[in-house]
Amino acid sequence: MYGKRLRALALMTAAGLTATLALVFFWAPNDATLGFLQKIFYIHVPLAIVTLCGFVAGGLMAIMHLRTRNPRWDVRSYVAIHISLVFGVGVLITGSIWAKGAWGHWWVWDEPTLVSFLLVMLLYATYQPLRFAIEDPERQARAASVFAITAGVFVPINFAIVRLSTEVVHPRTLDNISGNLPGRMQVVFWLALASVALLWVTLWRYEMASKHARAQLRALRRLLGGEDDEPLRRSAAPSISQAGGGH
Amino acid sequence: MAAALPLDTGGPYVVAAYLVFVALILLYVAIMAGKLSRIERELGELTELAARTRSERPEEL
User: Fold this and answer.
1) Cβ-contact A42, A28 below 8 angstroms
2) Per the CB < 8 Å rule, is B17 touching A104?
């Protein structure tokens, strides 16, 4: 089910990212203040936005899990948070590189946007250990969903608080964007955002398809009377077989 | 905050940032490739198991 139309999605993502890179380097003008260095903006900011949206999506999926008691929603939430964490690492690294080039420091501790994003990342870094700490899969899924919802609510609140803070060293992106970015830059930014969002969706479906295929294999092995090669052990990653197989 | 470096020296930083992005994607794809090869191996084992089960019970066929 998750592999359906995955090839078309992957091709769209590849085309979008290729077009984005081409436009970033050959079409978008250099920034008047930061010059060529500002090109990092087109990868750093979309990654940050998609990461935060991914965390919120993980929270929404966790709500569905608690509402329906369907463990498949827990798997979906887990994969969403897992991929967002990977993207978040990209945000921190590209942000640090940009900070070094623009401000001369890899990290600025008194900058609210940077520190708040790090806080969000540290918060979500506890998600996997939390899951691993609970052996019973059902209890683990419930606790993980409660965490995902709570942390998912924290993300937009955190974002809003940072916006309201008075220290504005970090550039504002989605604040009157048409007034901040010239036409070409704006086009490239939105294309980059769409491409990175597509990448997130593609990777999410890719991983869900992989988990689903693995669950089907295990079910088939049981049907054929073979031994399950994956003994019961503590794991932070839920499997679809725990969720009862199926779609 | 003033730029710490001259504006025309941002190239290496931009390249580094985009390389990080590409490296993350490649790392993810490599991990998924590992999972795929594991699924492929298990599928092979199951095919063998199915063939063995079939040959052991010819009267049912």
Assistant:
1) yes
2) no
Over residues A75-96, the mean pLDDT reads: 95
C-alpha count within 13 angstroms, C-beta hemisphere, residue A54? 30
Q: Could you give the ipTM of this predicted complex?
A: 0.79
Q: Residue B44 is part of which domain span?
A: 22-48
Closest CA of chain B from A168, distance in Å: 10
Select the residue of B10, B25, B53 nearest A101 (Cβ to Cβ). B10
Phi, then psi, of A43 in degrees rounded to 5: -110, -35
Domain boundaries, chain A: 6-223
Instruction: Check: pTM over 0.90? Answer yes or no.
Output: no
Q: Could you report the per-residue pLDDT of A25-43, keeping only the tens digit for each?
A: 898 888 877 888 888 999 9
Q: Examine residue B36 and state whether it is found in any structural domain, yes or no.
A: yes
SS3 track for A167-231: CCCCCCCCCCHHHHCCHHHHHHHHHHHHHHHHHHHHHHHHHHHHHHHHHHHHHHHHHCCCCCCCC
pLDDT in tens, B46-60: 888 888 887 877 655
In a domain? residue B11 = no
> Which pLDDT value is given to residue A59?
96
The count of other CB atoms within 10 Å of the CB of residue B8 is 10
Q: How many domains in chain B? A: 1
